[in-house]
Design brief:
Blueprint (H helix, E strand, L loop, with lengths): L8 E6 L4 E7 L1 E6 L2 E5 L6 E5 L2 E7 L2 E7 L2 E6 L2 E6 L2 E3 L5 H16 L8 H19 L4
Parallel strand pairs: 1-9
Antiparallel strand pairs: 1-2, 3-4, 3-6, 5-8, 6-7, 7-10, 8-9
Bound molecules: adenosine-5'-triphosphate.
């Protein structure tokens, strides 16, 4: 019997506190640690680490954006499971909060000579804030 080729992907995005998406989608773009990764139905199985960024997917012909931070994605031919620390849909992002977080992180990064400042932590906070701002912009087209 011929193999059945999947035409849709079942996408689950899960954080420690909630299920952010449980959808049937036609394609997903993941912010992988080493760059963005486009996934279509029938993709070869893989496991990848994610970095803060914009996850996008198409459902019913419309694009959707979700900001994810650190985590993993498991890709199967008909399923993508995203396990991440935090995830917000573009429309849920508080842009002013993300702007404040960006400003705080940038102020800390300017104080590189201050031993009290954890530079790596400030870099991570900046990456999360930039990912949220980029995802929120997704709504503006
Ligand atoms: P902040 O300093 O503003 O808390 P952060 O990057 O330290 O930012 P996280 O620790 O990544 O925040 O997230 C804590 C919780 O707050 C998570 O549930 C996350 O989804 C939510 N969150 C963080 N920033 C925003 C935002 N700008 N809009 C909506 N939800 C946010």
């Amino acid at each position: 019997m011929a193999d059945v080729i999947a035409t849709e992907i079942r996408l689950d995005i899960v954080t420690p506190d909630h299920l952010v998406a449980h959808d049937s989608v036609s394609g997903v773009t993941l912010p992988g640690k080493t760059g963005y990764l486009g996934i279509l139905p029938g993709h070869a199985p893989l496991l990848t680490e994610l970095a803060p960024g914009k996850l996008t997917y198409m459902r019913d012909g419309l694009p959707h954006g979700v900001c994810v931070t650190w985590g993993f994605a498991e890709v199967l031919p008909d399923r993508v499971i995203v396990l991440v620390q935090t995830a917000e849909r573009a429309e849920e992002i508080d842009v002013e909060r993300a702007e404040r977080a960006k400003q705080r992180a940038e102020d800390r990064l300017k104080r590189f000579a201050d031993p009290q400042i954890d530079m790596e932590r400030a870099h991570e906070a900046l990456r999360r804030a930039l990912a949220r701002l980029e995802t929120a912009r997704h709504l503006q087209g």
